[in-house]
Amino acid sequence: MSKFVGIFRKQRGKVGDFVFRKVGPEYIVSEKPPKKGTSEGTLNQSLYRAQWGNLVRFWQSFSDRDKPSFEAATINVSHFNLFMRANINGTRVYLTKEDVRLGACVVAPYRVSEGSLPVVPLTYESGGYYASTIQLGDLTNLASTTIGDFSRAVILNNNDFQNGDQIAVFIASQIVESVGGLPRVTMKGYKIELDTDDEVNLVTDIMGTGNVSVVDGVLCVARGDGAVIVHSRKTSTGETLVSTQSFVVNNAILTQYTSADARLKAAESYGIIDRGNWLTPNGQNEIAAN
């Protein structure tokens, strides 16, 4: 059982094999009791735990008003719980205990929304940009485009969008500190509410210079080590619908933190294994396959 202050604030419920609960002023995370006939504290469980650090830091990289959104969230099952559940068995990024303490984070292809609206595909292209499937018709110069012009182009050329919908663009940048090499993530979020009457400038007032562009008639994210576009809609009953989206990543250091060596270092830092016993034929080399 472990205590957390701040990191898991206001999170309760189950995530995989772990349970979050509030006890007095503190938040406690513990493993679910093992099923009869299974062993406790296995290597796989420990490595599962070692993935938390990057997931939590990635979640924290979003501002409070821009956190990942999951339609299935309820009073008892938070967006954070669903974010952890959606990603704990996906891309496995391993940070050492000290890296996590210092705030390390690696951009990874995590799912950040899950819902009933159609997916907005995003593809990293060789030109160094991320191309969506949002068609913009004859619109080519976003620098001089108003929200109204952009909204009309999106609605006219894409059946899944309507006035009042929102397009959120998130751009993750990977930073590696020059001293010590600690990886960090900065996250920028931009939201465009489709309004055909809005005369505000798309780039100057909302998106900023150099973040989006038009290539071959589609909306593109022009930079970043990872990017995602989320489509959302507010219903007449007040519900928020979202598209199911995961970050698309072009991160040069990702493989470094998903490798067998990264697993070994993380396991060692948490006291899961002893590197000195690594070559002993006792089954601990299973770490390389998980």
Provide structural commentary.
By secondary structure, the chain is an alpha+beta fold. The chain folds into 2 domains: about 1-105 and about 260-290, no CATH class; about 110-250, no CATH class. It contains 7 helices and 16 strands. It has helices at about 45-50, 50-60, 80-85, 95-100, 145-155, 200-205, 260-270, and strands at about 1-5, 15, 20-25, 25-30, 70, 110-115, 120-125, 130-135, 165-175, 185-195, 210-215, 220, 225-235, 240, 245, 250. The strands form 4 sheets. Strands 9, 10, 13, 14 and 16 form a 5-stranded antiparallel sheet that branches. A hairpin with a 2-residue loop joins strand 3 and strand 4. Helix 2 (about 50-60) packs across helix 3 (about 80-85).
Short note summarizing the structure:
By secondary structure, the protein is an alpha+beta fold. The protein has helices spanning 43-50, 52-60, 79-87, 97-101, 147-157, 202-207, 260-269, and strands spanning 2-4, 13-15, 18-23, 26-31, 69-70, 111-114, 122-124, 130-135, 166-176, 183-193, 212-215, 218-221, 226-234, 240-242, 245-246, 248-249.
Key terms for this structure?
5-stranded antiparallel beta sheet, 16 strands, single chain, 27% strand, disordered C terminus, 20% helix, 290 residues, alpha+beta, 2 domains
